[in-house]
């Protein structure tokens, strides 16, 4: 049995994207997993980093957000919405994000969930990153809906690579950074324009992926052992 | 004389990042430009795409956000905060973004500014993208503060390339996509840890960049002429 946290944000609750999120919940619950589900629209989550979220600051004069995050966590004074998400992140071994691609990235609601809930000290900090991050040993999967078509991406595509290029900030810079093993993302291409049959086929594929996350390949990530104490690359001898 | 729109979001108004935004405003105003400045914290900008921002929807039953954006714009019924930003974007020939790097991307406040204000029909749509986007002939510059150090980036760096890798979604996928000529970004490295003298030096460098945007090189972008009517790459004959 696994503990799964599913995070979702789409402004239309009857969208294909919302169906993907619900199906992920259904499939993992049926499997016997412990599943928590955060729909950021239903929760009315506030994605904005704000001084006012800290009731008792370590420095009332000058805001350094990550320092106040650490201070609030140490004093059990995190904002309730952040505490709830942090608890779900820490207890779960699998994170599943489901969202529509906006500007080759996550919607602001999910961006702000990272900004506020990916907590220094708990998820990362100092040299606790990548294979030494706080979430090592856990898996993250991403399901994305988009209007674009597959031929627009890749080395010859007009937008270049999607998973390795446009989404590097998310897959490596956020999920990989805190230590998750990041599964190759699932893309529901061309969703607004495709047939019901095609949508049904994609939804079934997504369900298979969600059910078999443990068997899916991970995206390679940097390893701290290849860098020195200030994260400079270790020099390697040239091949003779 | 140029028309410049400056967009900024940092939760601490005395931060180095806020100083960069204010200095950009000062430098361009002194030069005689027409400058508008949006500090998203001061404006309390809402970064979340919401059905409720449309008072008169084209489809009350099912939300397709970009279709409602187009409908609202055609009926002069955009939300006032969006209309204000759209007007500033359309009237300006230069856009300057100043923000702290959060998770190798913009803060949610700026992400949501793209999600809500980068308007289909006006800034992009159909095959109006890259060198045929709505903002062709305009310049965009980006000033970013971060805790990381320069040696953590680049081909050998632990995080890989910053401008061409982690920030591709912003520089190409957002600013380049709508047609801006995108200047190589300015990075204020290691800001929380460096000396006042080093910060003064970086601020002076930033001011020079802001003053000389017209002379700065652009990041290369895809050209629509290299792709067919469904944006498939045109096949090129192999070299003999």
Number of helices of chain A: 8
Shape of chain A: globular
Give the overall average pLDDT of chain A: 96
Query: Biggest interface and its residues per chain?
Result: A-B, 53 and 53 residues
Account of the protein in words:
The structure is a homodimer of 240-residue chains. With 240 residues, chain A is α/β, with parallel strands linked by helices. Chain A has a single domain (3-226), classed as Flavodoxin domain (Rossmann fold, 3-Layer(aba) Sandwich), CATH 3.40.50.360. In chain A, 34% of the residues lie in helices and 13% in strands. Chain A has eight helices and six strands, in the order E-H-E-H-H-H-E-H-E-H-H-E-E-H. Chain A has helices at residues 16-30, 40-43, 65-74, 80-91, 108-117, 162-166, 168-176, 196-211, and strands spanning 3-8, 34-39, 94-100, 139-145, 181-182, 186-188. In chain A, strands 1, 2, 3, 4, 5 and 6 form a six-stranded parallel beta sheet that branches. In chain A, helix 1 (16-30) packs parallel to helix 8. The termini of chain A are far apart. The model of chain A has no long low-confidence stretch (mean pLDDT 96). Chains A and B meet through helix 5 and helix 7 of A and helix 5 and helix 7 of B. Chains A, B: Residues 3-206 form the Flavodoxin-like fold domain. Chains A, B: Keywords: Oxidoreductase. Chains A, B: One of its GO terms (cellular component) is cytosol. Chains A, B: Belongs to the NAD(P)H dehydrogenase (quinone) family. Chains A, B: This is NAD(P)H dehydrogenase.
Summarize the structure.
The structure is a homodimer of 240-residue chains. With 240 residues, chain A is of the alpha/beta class.
